[in-house]
């Protein structure tokens, strides 16, 4: 599998990076406000443009003049994003003009070999665009494009430039065929023990004290002729607890970094092993972790560890637990479950068998004939007079086509005459038929409706 390209949005504080991120990704994932410094960490979301998928990464504002601690942290986050990205969108504020911070950042980017696009934001009108071009051309960064993230002006052209520049470098890009696996979960659920059990050796420090693992550990591993890259992470704990358990501020900083690394591991992964203690109830924090992995569209396996601590098991115990977890995490019913004991080495290697299968499902391409058959089912079963308001009953939707527009995760596009009038049951029917006709265990299916 080829490594997905990453485009990092970088710039000084309050130039509209998060608004641009939301516009390009059509999301509200990044919090935006008029206050400088609202976005402090890197936020990432996939974008599909002209049939090509890449990731857009928003970063905290870079302000190289201010030496406050927050600024230093934001710079560190953004520098990391620059190093890991395939392209940089250097965002500046058109109406504010060219500031010293912009010049300093331009010097920083020129030292990097990463391609840069200069994006002059807040260019709402032609006159603003003309003034901005005259001022920012002196920076010597090309290409340059004027946009307005607020109203969308020029953002389609920006996506075209991104697409063309990324396509130009595709042939030279390195291909990583390893299946990347992130092992995530709350602290002290046995993630490192599970990793060590898989490897058969003590590669990661394990202790009873929560948060023993503070860095991500990328470990290459071969199993049944397949190459894996296993990533163990520090546990993700509630934000209110991060940095507060110990008084030492330096240790608190390490804890915050661990949370960020765990999230980063999920972003890099093909498949997420979400580890939960089997003997405990699903907590609100477990659900938040599941939400993150689900939002990122990664393949997922639910690993219920410490199964050996469940007493008086019967042949139906696993079914009873499976039923409970299905109810606790209903939106992850597509994710397979496995009940393990890392210390007892119960069903440990089987997790890699499941990962291999889920990875294949993550990449799966569907035969167009299957999609045409599903489209026929939709057309045959569609009755505009069933349900809805009187106005809706008079609305007839023409279903024109169903095609796969992407994978990792599988992404399908239903073309029709009136997308807003499509009954909510239609996407559910499409997903049901897809899962019935192809292997999609452990994979989220995205269904988009448009003209």
UniProtKB/TrEMBL annotation:
Family annotation (Pfam families): KH_dom-like, MMR_HSR1
Gene Ontology molecular function, alphabetical: GTP binding; ribosome binding
Matches recorded under PROSITE patterns: G_ENGA
Entry annotated with the keyword Nucleotide-binding: yes
GO process terms (BP): ribosome biogenesis
InterPro entries: AAA+_ATPase, G_ENGA, GTP-bd, GTPase_Der, KH_dom-like, KH_dom-like_a/b, P-loop_NTPase, Small_GTP-bd
Binding-site residues, GTP 2: 185-192, 232-236, 305-308
EngA-type G domain sequence ranges: 179-363
CDD domains, per the entry: EngA1, EngA2
Binding residue positions for GTP 1: 11-18, 58-62, 121-124
Protein's UniProt keywords contain Transcription regulation: no
Keywords for this protein: GTP-binding, Nucleotide-binding, Repeat, Ribosome biogenesis
Domain of life, source organism: Bacteria
Function of the protein: GTPase that plays an essential role in the late steps of ribosome biogenesis.
Family in the record: Belongs to the TRAFAC class TrmE-Era-EngA-EngB-Septin-like GTPase superfamily. EngA (Der) GTPase family.
Subunit architecture: Associates with the 50S ribosomal subunit.
Record protein name field: GTPase Der
Species for this entry: Candidatus Kerfeldbacteria bacterium CG15_BIG_FIL_POST_REV_8_21_14_020_45_12
Gene name linked to the record: der
